[in-house]
Amino acid sequence: MRGIAFATIKGGVGKTASSAHVAYALSEIGPTLFVDLDPQGNGSRLLGVDATPQTALAGDLLKPKPPSLRSVAVQQYDNLWVAPAHLRMAREEPQLYQWSYAVMGLQNAIAGYETLFDYVVVDTGPHLSCFTRSALHAADLVMVPIPPQAGAYDGALYLANEVSSIEEARGSPIEICGFISWADARNRVENRTWEKLGDAVPFPILETKIARRNGVNKAGLEYKLIFETAEHSSQAAEDYRALAQEIQIRVSTDGLETIVDNAPSSEAAPTVIMGVGDGG
How far apart are the two ends of the chain, measured CA to CA in Å? Predict the structure, then answer.
């Protein structure tokens, strides 16, 4: 089981959309859990779970007496489970800072489920909250969406420093990678920005670029994945699957694991993963 956290301290950069779509794409490869640690809950909704204040939430897993993961995660597709979020988590988060247990909460919650899930995808909010730190502590790989915008690099550098601190505290390595989000290949200024990105941040940038496409935006307004619309075979869908393939290689045991054909069959139902969203 490999943990993948999507994190940023800048909102509106496509993090939640990317985490939910990647979770779905990874579930086409193997059993996936999506953990939504963004109180906005947009990742949960994209994956079909509209939680209420009474719902057992992903944030509850960080409490001193947490519920079991089995009572929180909801199976939405054949190979995808969702631990949802709700705004109730935002009200309760200040209390979590009183408990050192909270940082270890997610890692403890998923321990023992190694044989059930191949991937755990976590979506986090656009700031270094208690939820985000718990997600980073449980991650093998941290994915940072970087838009071609002024100030995006500073946020990425700040997050990289936080990952380094958590890595040192837990005593085991955490890989961090970036990817270009909300790209426009026709924009020459952005193209020059991309070329300089590798020298501007202290971690690798994956090859796949996630473009800002109308199909994704339209599907998101209806809280649907692009895979569930008439554009399920569009370039946008292929971009997300390509990103999932790069991530799958990164988190495989030897980094060279063969990627199975992840194209969904006509009879296959979609699947879900766990994430912490930023509403982006």
Answer: 26
